């Protein structure tokens, strides 16, 4: 079973260690009214936002007994933690998938808590909460531009696609250094070079401070 977060551009982030449990919280909304001497009454409303939460960790050292994928696929704990921080501030929804469990929903990262434990140097523990996202339906009433004056429901679409990630070159930078810091893998320097060959020129080592490079 894999737990994966995917961006609107198809970038996949697979959690390397499955949590012991995944908690899915569902609630129904209610409005409560106090009617004179009769007391309080609940009036059911629409469903509330669903929350999905779990805890796990990013191991520093690969262990095939609990790590997903191969050793080369294990992310550096600091890079993985920074990726969750990036997801936390994103303005567009992600897609969360749990294979073999039938879960495939658009979400936002609502909270992310990190813990460092003594005696386990390098490992990064985390708690994460996701909130499901849904499009807002807007009803047009009579008097608006609808045929026959009937109400029409239309969806207000939110673009789940991300804008290209960019980086401005600083003094002392190299493509491999940028790839390590921004993409978590120095070997991806060639990917950056291919995307920016017109800007950089024929020599990938000839990047200059101030150049704006596309990373993805």
Give structural notes.
With 216 residues, this protein is of the alpha+beta class. The chain folds into 2 domains: 3-27 and 43-132, Elongation Factor Tu (Ef-tu), domain 3, CATH 2.40.30; 166-214, LysM domain (Membrane-bound Lytic Murein Transglycosylase D, Chain A), CATH 3.10.350.10. The protein has helices at residues 77-88, 175-183, 189-195, 197-200; strands at 3-6, 12-14, 22-25, 28-35, 39-47, 51-58, 94-98, 103-115, 124-132, 136-140, 152-156, 166-168, 212-214. α2 crosses α3. The relative contact order is 0.14. The model has no long low-confidence stretch (mean pLDDT 81).
How do you describe this structure in short?
The protein is of the alpha+beta class and about 220 residues long.
Element layout with pairings:
Blueprint: E1 3-6, E2 12-14, E3 22-25, E4 28-35, E5 39-47, E6 51-58, H1 77-88, E7 94-98, E8 103-115, E9 124-132, E10 136-140, E11 152-156, E12 166-168, H2 175-183, H3 189-195, H4 197-200, E13 212-214
Antiparallel strand pairs: 1-2, 1-7, 3-6, 4-5, 6-9, 7-8, 8-9, 10-11, 12-13
The N- and C-terminal alpha carbons lie at a distance of: 28 Å
CATH architecture title of the largest domain = Beta Barrel
CATH class of the largest domain reads Mainly Beta
Order of helices and strands: EEEEEEHEEEEEEHHHE
| Low-pLDDT stretches | none
Structural class: alpha+beta
Averaging pLDDT over every residue, what do you get? 81
- The strand line-up of the biggest sheet is 2-1-7-8-9-6-3
Instruction: Classify the beta-strand content into a percent band.
Output: 35-45%
Shape: globular
| Count of extended strands | 13
Over the alpha carbons, how many angstroms does the gyration radius reach?
23 Å
